[in-house]
Amino acid sequence: MTTIPITPPSWQMLLPPRPEQSHKGDFGVVGIIGGAAGMVGAPLLAARAALAMGAGRVYGGLLDARVAIDPTAPELMLTSPEHLFRLQAPGCLVIGPGLGQDARALNLLRTALKSPLSLLIDADALNLIAAHPVLLRHITQRSAPTLLTPHPGEAARLLACSIADIQQDRAAAVRQLHAKIPVICILKGAGTLICTGDTVWQNPTGNPAMAVPGMGDSLAGMIAALIAQGVPALAAAQAGVYLHGQAGDTCVQNGLGPRGLTASEVIACARSLLNEVKLG
């Protein structure tokens, strides 16, 4: 089995340039489904990251209907999760950040798995899949690109093993995960791994300062935004994890870590790094 390091040339040329004559509708739509009571911050971070990566329109489908606006990013459109199933391509749905695991969350996941849009499955949505294996059949039947983004704990639940088992041989674990769920599998953590079959890509960027809340949510939004703008799903995954880690490294170099770094700071830095890339 081959493990390949992710490098900028492997994905940069796939990022499309922006024509002079363009509008927001040219850059896709991202919908983030999650945000049960007490967990709204997770989808808001994912949505803010999608905005920062250039998605044309970004919706937050929040289970907690009390939140009507994000004062930090009023550009976000906040609505019900069910509304996001009417979004049109090109676009990408993210389900899981702050989703919870109750009956409504499960029904939303079932509906998301039927969506014709690309789908990134994260956080509580992964835990629901582990608890309801019948959902695996719906994942494998999807025709649109599908990505799983577990951290070691979520991967352990999906594979019915311990976190120690995952961490002992991360490359083997991500291959086992792909064998069980044959989609793009992204095992987060130090040296994030991406598996699509026999090949595993390893991310060289990132550092321990990023072991804080919200980092996985921001990564999900970044990847979704790139997919919505037309980047192929695998390249979007590679670009997302590389830029996310590179932004964390840059933040630490600028004195924002190693202690006290926030996901919001990484999002802002990732936008700057993305705009330094020569596209087209």
Verbal overview:
The chain is an alpha/beta fold and 280 residues long. The protein has one domain (29-274): 3-Layer(aba) Sandwich (UDP-N-acetylmuramoyl-L-alanine:D-glutamate ligase). Helix content is 39%, strand content 15%. It has ten helices and ten strands. It has helices spanning 41-52, 103-112, 123-131, 135-140, 152-159, 163-168, 170-180, 215-228, 233-253, 263-274, and strands at residues 2-5, 29-34, 57-62, 77-79, 91-95, 118-121, 146-148, 184-187, 193-195, 199-202. Strand 8 and strand 9 (193-195) form a beta hairpin. Helix 8 (215-228) packs across helix 9 (233-253) and helix 8 (215-228) runs parallel beside helix 10 (263-274).
Task: Summarize the helices and strands and which ones pair or pack.
Elements: E1 2-5, E2 29-34, H1 41-52, E3 57-62, E4 77-79, E5 91-95, H2 103-112, E6 118-121, H3 123-131, H4 135-140, E7 146-148, H5 152-159, H6 163-168, H7 170-180, E8 184-187, E9 193-195, E10 199-202, H8 215-228, H9 233-253, H10 263-274
Parallel strand pairs: 1-10, 2-3, 2-5, 3-4, 5-6, 6-7, 7-8
Antiparallel strand pairs: 8-9, 9-10
Helix pairs in contact: 1-8, 1-10, 3-5, 8-9, 8-10, 9-10
